[in-house]
Prior knowledge:
Elements: H1 3-29, H2 37-55, H3 63-88
Amino acid sequence: MTNTNASRRDALTVVLGAGLGAAGLVAATSPASAYQGNMEHALNQLFGALESLRRAVPNKGGHRERAIEFVQQAIGEVQAGIDFAAPNGGG
């Protein structure tokens, strides 16, 4: 693993963390029906999976790295769903 990969990963973590903070603010100021409890739970689980994958030994023939990419994509999709539902009253 190179420093470039670590830097990108750290930057992604900061961006995703900021996005989650913003989503929490939106959820706190939106109608109660817009709260996405199951989506928030899924997001938390995905962040846990991402952390576990990052801590795993990288001797998996590239599959660990691909899994990290897929989990990051899933985090983005779940967050997009939450962001979409918030102003549209999806509860």
